[in-house]
């Protein structure tokens, strides 16, 4: 027998302390960071790091404790996600849809589904997604048809980030009448997952093709039905998904600072200075490091601010206080943050090479991965369209998700900007 989710349930289960979380996850992040360059050089998918995170409970960090999860607040979650992005910026992207699935489950008024799926995540199972398509169509081409028992799923998705690592795949399909969502096992018969992502960054996210050929879907794995053409209101998911990207970018900025300091401290010659000299004592090198530190600080501070707003909306929703205009303001805040953090991370990833000159371009260091990864993360979202939506909101009061839904008439754009998948 299940019970309804109430604000008192969350109040009864206090969040862990920051010190407890750091003691638990800092060693895992260090272990992940230690192998990040080698994985990049070999294009070695991050199966082991994902397993380490599952074993440590990171993938269930936002699952409430009553389901067996970590019970962390959103500010705690995004602070740790930034640290994970610093260790290896592929990892937050791999887990992004898992975390979005958790937040979506917490929003929907379906306690039975929460109990079924969040307990699985708390036990270490991982959810990926197959939402977006790389076609010329503007509709959902994956079909779900009734069978003698359950359903049959057929079709192909692209930009299915995390699915290759996942135990379960959250699939957007069409049943001939409506858009629907179902969960299928990643290893189910008829499911094919390909590592054919060809982006120049985020190479280990396996953000490629997932195919479904007469995949059996039992009734209990049918999640929901909705009208895909209707704008989704009173949800924090668009802002949540965007903030995952921003935390990853802030992590990249922190990694750039870390690697810039390590590179300068390990050198014994400054460019243009004959003889033995130390870059760490050079005022120009100090200035570059100072700028990198400032960019990392600013990016992380912006992410923390949005995370606090997400937590406030979360608590207001539990208490029944959240209004539509509050969700609009949250979207605008996240989109404004996007305009700033993208520039900060990209500037840092470029400025890094002023610390070391030509020697910093060595393939053995792979310092270029920071810029490549940041550029690909930044390209996942149509920032220029968001900027126009921000202006329309401030000038005319145009609701942000209503304005932005017009920009998602292309399935491919939706795929690359998957912070507003059909799930959201």
Automatic annotation (TrEMBL):
CDD domains: DszC
Oxidoreductase among keywords: yes
Record-level GO BP terms: L-leucine catabolic process
Domain Acyl-CoA dehydrogenase C-terminal: 247-381
Domain Acyl-CoA dehydrogenase/oxidase N-terminal: 31-125
SUPFAM superfamilies given in the database record: Acyl-CoA dehydrogenase C-terminal domain-like, Acyl-CoA dehydrogenase NM domain-like
Key words, A-Z: Oxidoreductase
GO molecular function: 3-methylbutanoyl-CoA dehydrogenase activity; flavin adenine dinucleotide binding
InterPro entries in alphabetical order: Acyl-CoA_DH_C (IPR013107), Acyl-CoA_Oxase/DH_mid-dom_sf (IPR046373), AcylCo_DH-like_C (IPR036250), AcylCoA_DH/ox_N (IPR013786), AcylCoA_DH/ox_N_sf (IPR037069), AcylCoA_DH/oxidase_NM_dom_sf (IPR009100)
Keyword Oxidoreductase among UniProt keywords: yes
Family annotation (PANTHER family): ACYL-COA DEHYDROGENASE, ISOVALERYL-COA DEHYDROGENASE, MITOCHONDRIAL-RELATED
Protein name as catalogued: Acyl-CoA dehydrogenase
Organism field: Paraburkholderia phenazinium
């Amino acid at each position: 027998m299940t019970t309804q989710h109430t604000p008192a349930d969350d109040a009864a289960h206090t969040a862990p302390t920051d010190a407890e979380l750091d003691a638990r996850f800092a060693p895992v992040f260090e272990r992940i960071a230690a192998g990040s360059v080698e994985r990049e050089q070999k294009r070695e998918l991050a199966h082991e790091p994902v397993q380490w995170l599952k074993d440590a409970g990171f993938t269930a960090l936002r699952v409430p404790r009553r389901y067996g999860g970590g019970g962390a607040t959103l500010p705690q979650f995004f602070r740790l996600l930034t640290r994970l992005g610093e260790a290896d910026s592929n990892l937050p992207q791999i887990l992004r849809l898992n975390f979005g699935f958790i937040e979506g489950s917490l929003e929907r008024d379906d306690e039975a589904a929460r109990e079924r799926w969040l307990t699985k995540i708390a036990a270490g199972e991982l959810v990926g997604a197959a939402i977006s398509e790389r076609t010329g169509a503007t509709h959902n081409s994956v079909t779900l048809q009734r069978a003698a028992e359950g359903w049959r799923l057929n079709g192909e998705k692209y930009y299915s980030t995390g699915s290759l690592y996942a135990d379960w795949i959250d699939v957007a399909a069409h049943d001939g009448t409506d858009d629907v969502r179902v969960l299928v096992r990643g290893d189910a018969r008829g499911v094919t997952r390909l590592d054919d992502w060809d982006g120049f960054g985020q190479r280990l996210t396996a953000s490629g093709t997932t195919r479904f050929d007469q995949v059996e879907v039992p009734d209990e794995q049918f999640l929901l039905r909705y009208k895909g053409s209707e704008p989704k209101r009173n949800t924090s998911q668009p802002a949540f998904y965007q903030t995952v990207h921003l935390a990853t970018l802030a992590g990249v900025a922190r990694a750039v600072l870390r690697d810039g300091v390590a590179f300068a401290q390990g050198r014994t010659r400054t460019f243009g200075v004959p003889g033995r000299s130390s870059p760490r004592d050079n005022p120009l090198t100090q200035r570059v490091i100072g700028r990198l530190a400032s960019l990392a600080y600013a990016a992380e501070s912006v992410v923390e601010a949005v995370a606090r707003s997400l937590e406030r909306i979360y608590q207001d929703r539990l208490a029944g206080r959240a209004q539509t205009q509050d969700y609009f303001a949250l979207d605008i805040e996240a989109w404004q943050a996007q305009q700033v953090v993208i520039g900060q991370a990209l500037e840092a990833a470029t400025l890094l090479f002023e610390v070391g000159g030509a020697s910093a371009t060595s393939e053995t260091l792979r310092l270029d991965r920071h810029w490549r990864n940041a550029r690909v993360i930044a390209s996942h979202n149509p920032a220029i369209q968001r900027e126009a939506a921000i202006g329309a909101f401030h000038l005319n009061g145009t609701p942000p998700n209503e304005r932005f839904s017009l920009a998602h008439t292309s399935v491919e754009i939706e795929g690359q900007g998957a912070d507003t998948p059909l799930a959201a």
